[in-house]
């Protein structure tokens, strides 16, 4: 039986699309009220807070070694995170996968009839380009595709 962590067993089409986990996002009502748990309590380092107008959220990226945790708070009453918090409360909001080429990743998923929330790239935090995959196609997990800024 192949080891599930063995990249060589991944479908060929995905080997050049998904690079790895970019971050885990946690929906919170207030970054100001939550950040001390992560920074002082757990010793995570802040990598910067930012307002993302297109998503109607404020985000705080925290570093746990090489791993990134993103606290996400709604920036308006009509933010998608406002609805998430009302329905589910605070907690894990989404998994974000780093991709090399967002357009190629979206085309790959569309060709396989995966339901997308965003069919085109959106502006994300820290200069990234993002798109969300609908949880109806991913066993109930909201997923974000993240393309890092080009150097």
Short description:
The protein is of the alpha+beta class and 151 residues long. The chain is built from four helices and eight strands, in the order H-E-H-E-E-E-H-E-H-E-E-E. It has an eight-stranded mixed β-sheet.
Report on this model:
The protein has four helices and eight strands. The protein is α+β, with helices and mostly antiparallel strands and 151 residues long. It has a single domain (16-147), classed as 2,3-Dihydroxybiphenyl 1,2-Dioxygenase, domain 1 (Roll). An eight-stranded mixed beta sheet has the order 2-3-4-1-5-8-7-6. The longest helix is centred in the N-terminal third of the chain and has 11 residues, at 31-41. The chain is globular. The termini are far apart.
What percentage of amino acids are in beta strands? 35-45%
Number of helices: 4
Poorly predicted regions are: 1-10
Let me know the CATH homologous superfamily.
2,3-Dihydroxybiphenyl 1,2-Dioxygenase, domain 1
Quaternary organisation: single chain
CATH topology-level fold name: 2,3-Dihydroxybiphenyl 1,2-Dioxygenase, domain 1
Shape: globular
Write down how many β-strands occur, each being a DSSP E stretch of 2 or more residues.
8
């Amino acid at each position: 039986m192949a080891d599930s962590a063995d990249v060589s067993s991944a479908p060929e089409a995905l080997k050049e699309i998904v690079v790895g986990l970019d971050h885990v996002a946690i929906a919170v009502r207030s970054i100001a009220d939550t950040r001390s748990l992560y920074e002082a309590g757990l010793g995570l380092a802040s990598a910067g807070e930012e307002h993302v107008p297109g998503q109607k959220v404020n985000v705080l990226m925290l570093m746990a070694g090489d791993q990134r945790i993103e606290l996400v708070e709604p920036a308006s009453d009509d933010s998608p995170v406002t609805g998430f918090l009302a329905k589910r409360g605070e907690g894990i909001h989404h998994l974000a996968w780093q991709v090399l080429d967002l357009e190629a990743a979206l085309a790959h998923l569309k060709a396989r009839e995966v339901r997308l929330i965003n069919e085109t790239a959106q502006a994300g935090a820290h200069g990234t380009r993002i798109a969300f995959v609908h949880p109806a196609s991913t066993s109930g997990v909201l997923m974000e595709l993240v393309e890092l800024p080009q150097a």
